[in-house]
Design goal:
The chain has 191 residues and is an alpha/beta fold. Helix content is 23%, strand content 32%. The radius of gyration is 17 Å and the shape is globular.
């Protein structure tokens, strides 16, 4: 909004994320709207509504069907609208469960070619590295090719892609894994 957008809308399924977003918008003195909803349940009132959509790190893993997900994103964007994704690289998810990069046991790696679902019992604040109690849940592995194909299938033209050896989490294991792609950025637009 500070770059000229007249309106901003954020969506998340987490009550805590919505509450934090509202607090940050208030601190920044921005009149943004935040809705608690599963992305795939966004109704038609937002069809062809957005010039720009940003998908943040740690989002895509929660959706079992990326075609369904990007079909919604595609219908929300105006013609010529842009999509920017900054997300954890699928390679980074190999190391998600019980893998200690300082004492590697490669049998603990999550298989890159198996979609899942993968089960977790504890929450982890990736920024602070703090574990917390949460409802158990499931996440899904998506290969980079699956992500790109879902974009293309839903009328999104790939304009740029870049991979990085860093992610939001800044801990010792990330430093050990810096030889791997840990995040990526994709820019695409509606055809």
């Amino acid at each position: 909004m500070k770059r000229g957008a007249r309106k901003a809308v954020g969506f998340d399924i987490s009550d805590n994320a919505i509450q934090e977003a509202r607090q940050l918008a208030e601190i920044a003195k921005m009149d943004a709207t935040f809705e608690r909803i599963n992305i795939v349940d966004i109704d038609d009132k937002y069809n062809n509504y957005f010039d720009f959509i940003y998908i943040s790190e740690g989002s895509l893993q929660w959706f079992p069907d990326l075609n369904e997900y990007f079909a919604v994103i595609s219908r929300l964007l105006k013609e010529g609208g842009q999509l920017l994704i900054f997300e954890m690289h699928p390679i980074a998810y190999l190391f998600e469960v019980d893998f200690d990069a300082k004492k590697p046991d490669f049998d603990l790696l999550i298989p890159y070619f198996e979609k899942g679902p993968y089960h977790y019992k504890d929450g982890l604040d990736y920024i602070g590295g703090v574990e917390y109690e949460t409802k158990e849940g499931y996440w899904f592995m998506h290969k980079l090719s699956d992500i790109l194909k879902a974009l293309i299938k839903n009328g999104l033209i790939l304009e740029d892609i870049e991979e990085y050896n860093w992610e939001m989490a800044n801990n010792e294991s990330t430093k050990v894994l810096d030889k791997f792609p840990l995040s990526y950025l994709i820019l695409s637009k509606v055809s």
